[in-house]
Amino acid sequence: MSNNETILVEREIEIPLDSGEKIRGTLDLAKEVSGIIIFAHGSASNRLSPRNKYVAAALREKGFATLLFDLLTDKEEAIDLQTREFRFDIDLLTKRLVMATRWCVENEETKQLPVGYFGASTGAAAALFAAAELGNAVKAVVSRGGRADLAINVLSSVTAPTLLIVGGDDSVVIDMNRRAAKYLKVKTQLLIIPGASHLFEEPGALEQVSRASAGWFENYLTK
């Protein structure tokens, strides 16, 4: 079945902020959806990340809805490109992810769907912080090349089964995730993709990420 056949609805959304500004997202609803995966992108990235879009398409093929959204406003993103001021502001990124989650919980088309997170780089830290804050509202978490170490202070409060995926050639991040995994009290797996770098740009690497992520969400999001 092709990706075009599985998509029921694709639309651009806007989530209002207290400041009056908005963050934008792309919501895709597949037929017979069994859950929604909210993506939290990494530093210097946004909802148009080709790697996250690749994984999102693979998850939709498995019957999941997806929401890819910008953690930063256009103004913040422009500032961050110059100063890197916001990309490691995990508190801010977490707040935006919580807002997106609550939008899904209140939105008529998605409110009945169990929620999972897919986080990359610093977005993975935000996903773990948000999962700790929201508790049972988040059913499963997948981290790709994530900075789980930045969330160590809250990892023991995470209730969602968590899959940590790291490239085999990304030795620094492997060590960070091994350390972080010791703090998680839930079902946890550290999956190392042989020959993959931090961005998983090698042939077949993202396919392995997508397959493992789909399996994790099928096991823990829908049961």
Written account of the structure:
The chain has 223 residues and is α/β, with parallel strands linked by helices. The protein has a single domain, classed as Rossmann fold, CATH 3.40.50. Helix content is 37%, strand content 24%. The chain has 7 helices and 8 strands, in the order αβββαβααβαββαβα. It has helices spanning 3-6, 50-61, 74-83, 90-106, 122-134, 171-181, 205-220; strands at 7-16, 22-30, 36-40, 65-69, 115-120, 138-144, 162-167, 188-193. Strands 1-2-4-3-5-6-7-8 form an 8-stranded mixed β-sheet, with helices on both faces. Helix 4 crosses helix 5 (122-134). The chain is globular. Residues 1-5 have low confidence and may be disordered.
Low-confidence stretches: 1-5
Q: How far apart are the first and last residues' alpha carbons, in Å?
A: 24 Å
**CATH C-level label:** Alpha Beta
Instruction: Report the total helices.
Output: 7
Number of strands: 8
Beta-strand fraction estimate: 15-25%
Instruction: Supply the CATH architecture.
Output: 3-Layer(aba) Sandwich
Integer count of domains: 1
Tell me the major beta sheet: 8 strands, mixed
Instruction: Choose one word for the global shape.
Output: globular
Q: Within the CATH hierarchy, at the fold level, what is the topology?
A: Rossmann fold
Radius of gyration: 16 Å
Structural class: alpha/beta
Strand order of the largest sheet: 1-2-4-3-5-6-7-8
Mean pLDDT: 90
